[in-house]
Design goal:
13 strands; single chain; mainly beta; 5-stranded antiparallel sheet; elongated
């Protein structure tokens, strides 16, 4: 059953392919505790439809090795390689004060050091090095990326709906002063 527009999905893992020859699947976990994937089952596709129901799991170097209801063979497991796995945001515990989930940043206003709105956070991406904020400019044009670091995003106000950003050119200019 697809999710309604109000239900944010959180990326919690990705299928790495088969493990062994008996239909087990390796899942890279993006959760603090990889074994938590069992509790979140069934895991969903990006459109909110169930894709994997874990019946058992054991820790592995990058996540878990699991037996799932939908996969019986090595070939079926390999065919799922790369499948991103999500859960509804509502399943996660509320973060502590001054903490947030990266997905909570999506939709926030991006404000500059003078408090002017320069755009909105479209997504949070990770291309392998670190988290990057994808920003949609207020006045239109192509989106652009900003590293999600304390220096580039020094003030995050999720409850108030905004975060402060310091583009890299301004960081360099400040260092020269």
């Amino acid at each position: 059953m697809p999710m309604s527009g109000d239900d944010k999905l959180i990326l919690v893992g990705q299928v790495g392919g088969a493990f062994g020859v008996k239909g087990e699947v390796r899942i890279t976990a993006y959760t603090a505790d990889p074994m938590a994937l069992l509790a979140y089952s069934p895991l969903l596709k990006a459109d909110g439809r169930p894709v994997l129901t874990l019946s058992t799991a054991r820790p592995d170097k990058a996540g878990v090795v699991a037996r799932v209801k939908e996969i019986a063979t090595k070939e079926e497991a390999d065919a799922m390689r790369g499948q991103k796995l999500f859960i509804p945001r509502a399943l996660l515990p509320e973060p502590e004060d001054d903490e947030f989930y990266l997905t909570d940043l999506v939709g926030l206003e991006a404000r500059d050091v003078d408090d002017a709105v320069v755009g909105r956070i479209k997504s949070v991406q990770n291309f392998g090095a670190s988290d990057m904020l994808e920003i949609t400019p207020k006045d239109g044009g192509p989106t652009w990326y900003l590293p999600f670091t304390r220096e580039a995003a020094p003030d995050v106000r999720v409850q108030e709906g905004w975060l402060r950003i310091v583009p890299p050119t301004e960081i360099g200019e400040r260092d020269e002063d």
